[in-house]
Design a protein that fits this description.
Layout (H helix, E strand, L loop, with lengths): L4 H10 L8 H8 L14 H15 L8 H5 L6 H6 L11 H14 L12 E2 L4 E4 L10 E7 L4 E6 L4 E5 L5 E6 L4 E6 L3 E6 L11 E7 L7 E7 L2 E7 L8 E6 L6 E9 L2 E8 L4 E7 L8 E6 L4 E10 L2 E10 L5 E7 L8 E6 L14 E8 L2 E9 L3 E7 L8 E6 L12 E6 L5 E4 L9 E7 L8 E6 L8 H10 L3 E6 L3
Parallel strand pairs: 1-26
Antiparallel strand pairs: 2-29, 3-4, 4-5, 5-6, 7-8, 8-9, 9-10, 11-12, 12-13, 13-14, 15-16, 16-17, 17-18, 19-20, 20-21, 21-22, 23-24, 24-25, 25-26, 27-28, 28-29
Helix pairs in contact: 2-6, 3-6
């Protein structure tokens, strides 16, 4: 399987010569030092030649002309961080002959066309009915949907306006707070809401994100607890050092120089940062007793190069030991992870999506989709794979109340040319792990980037909320105009089971 590093390692070892290493062996040595070595079959030949090999060359100090390196490095506050990390070396790290071997290895081994993705036939109608709310923003730039059943409020974050909007169960606007660009994640305690604010939806290494707190009673102004974050996208909260106070885990996705850190609560609003992993692409983190030893560990998903799921085992007294649970090739585009005990055995299983497809003009990738990993006493084994172009989030629940687990999923990069219905797919389980797929007629009315699951109408079944963000589609510029004009920030998918 592509996510298993041993297959790649054994292939390379079999063809390696100390005197004259093959392109395959050189790829393992160079590419594999930073991430799981990709297979030539991960992309088609044109994508390797036009996009990926030149980009790989940049990371090895190979540029087409003297101005290329400077053009790649972001200016402003991000520049110092990128230079310090030596993302783009000034000089070559590999000789011309070795680089030619690596290029030949990928170009000769790549398929002429992308490997076809398997598809479920998708019916237009299923158990969900789309309801368009009166609320909307132009252009729609939804980055967060979070529903609180206790307060019966829906919170919507918007990148373009920088607003955090509050709606009632009828989806009418109750109020809003201006907290900067792209509120992206939210949690709460008895008195406060806590919000991660990206600072920039567009990729950047600039430290302009933050973590803020708002009072539930509406009194006082927004309070910034942590600032100067690099494009943070998620947070988790727990007592990690056993001192009785709530600490914070922050995922700084950034662009090239992000990190995963936990922030130790020292009291009186003072937090001290402890870096767990100084790498970009941290997407989501859970605080969970992964090994069942009584303390809170951290399980985190990374994309952006060195992709995979890492476990930070709590050693006590604020110390953590890093362990790799799963690694994926950098072409996967890891986009989502959720921990959920699917078989009620007391161990958290993993629902994972690969589907990010924005690094160059998107091609359809046969490994994009939803993977479910079974947790066996802390070790993860792939149980099932459901292909879906551009998969961005998935919820595994008994939506139709028939006693088995179904899957609801969104795609931010569906096959808009031939299968736009992939933007949302409901996979109904027949009880034996076989699925029938459906969508809804208005699926192309938005480009769905976030999904929330809740029983918003309190009828006993789970409804869905899909948030839309207008984003260019190569070859379908008309869609972006339609999304911007319609102002559909989200839709409610009402579950008709009850």
């Amino acid at each position: 399987m592509l996510y298993c590093g041993s297959e790649h390692v054994e292939e390379v070892r079999s063809s390696k010569s100390e005197d004259d290493p093959s392109g395959e062996a050189l790829a393992l040595a160079r590419c594999g030092s930073c991430h799981l070595t990709p297979s030539p079959k991960d992309l088609d030949r044109r994508s390797w030649e036009k996009y990926m090999l030149p980009r790989m060359g940049h990371f090895l100090g190979i540029y087409s002309d003297s101005s290329t390196r400077e053009s790649l490095i972001e200016g402003g506050s991000a520049k110092e961080r990128v230079l310090a990390a030596n993302v783009y070396p000034e000089g070559r790290l590999i000789d011309e002959a070795s680089w030619k071997k690596i290029q030949d290895y990928y170009l000769t081994g790549a398929p002429e066309d992308p490997i076809p993705i398997k598809r479920y036939p998708i019916a237009e109608k299923g158990i969900f009915k789309a309801v368009r709310p009166a609320f909307g923003l132009r252009p729609p730039s939804t980055t967060m949907l979070s529903y609180s059943p206790i307060e019966q409020r829906l919170f919507l974050g918007d990148a373009f306006t920088g607003g955090l909007y509050v709606l009632d169960p009828s989806l009418k606007k109750m109020g809003q707070a201006k907290i900067d660009e792209a509120p992206v994640w939210m949690s709460a305690d008895d008195k406060h809401y806590y919000v991660t604010v990206m600072g920039s939806f567009s990729p950047t290494d600039a430290p302009i994100g933050k973590f803020v707190r708002l009072r539930k009673d509406g009194e006082g102004s927004t309070e910034t607890l942590i600032e100067s974050l690099q494009r943070p996208v998620h947070h988790a909260m727990a007592d990690l050092d056993g001192d009785g106070s709530t600490d914070i885990v922050v995922c700084e996705f950034a662009k090239w120089t992000g990190s995963l850190s936990w922030w130790q609560n020292k009291g009186d609003g003072d937090y001290v940062r402890h870096v767990l992993r100084q790498e970009p692409g941290s997407i989501k983190a859970y605080t969970v007793d992964w090994d069942k030893d009584g303390d809170q560990d951290i399980v985190a998903l990374f994309g952006q190069g060195d992709e995979g799921i890492w476990w930070y085992e709590n050693q006590g007294q604020g110390k953590f030991e890093e362990r790799v649970l799963l690694r994926f090739p950098p072409s996967y585009g890891s986009s989502f992870m959720e921990l959920h005990d699917l078989d009620a055995d007391g161990w958290k299983d993993v629902v994972y999506c690969a589907g990010d497809n924005a690094d160059f003009p998107p091609i359809l990738k046969h490994y994009h989709g939803i993977r479910i990993f079974k947790n066996r006493s802390g070790e993860l084994t792939e149980q099932s794979f459901i292909p879906l172009n551009g998969a961005y989030a998935a919820k595994v629940l008994d939506f139709d109340l028939d006693g088995d687990l179904d899957i609801a999923a969104i795609s931010f990069f569906p096959d808009y040319a031939d299968h736009p219905e992939e933007g949302f797919v409901f996979l109904e389980n027949d009880g034996n792990g076989n699925y029938s797929a459906s969508s809804f007629p208005e699926v192309s009315s938005g480009r769905w980037i976030v999904m929330e699951c809740t029983d918003i109408d309190r009828d006993g079944d789970q409804d869905l909320l899909l948030g839309s963000l207008a984003f260019e589609v190569p070859g379908r510029e008309d869609l972006v105009g339609q999304w911007a004009e319609s102002g559909i920030s989200f839709v409610l998918l009402e579950n008709l089971t009850r």
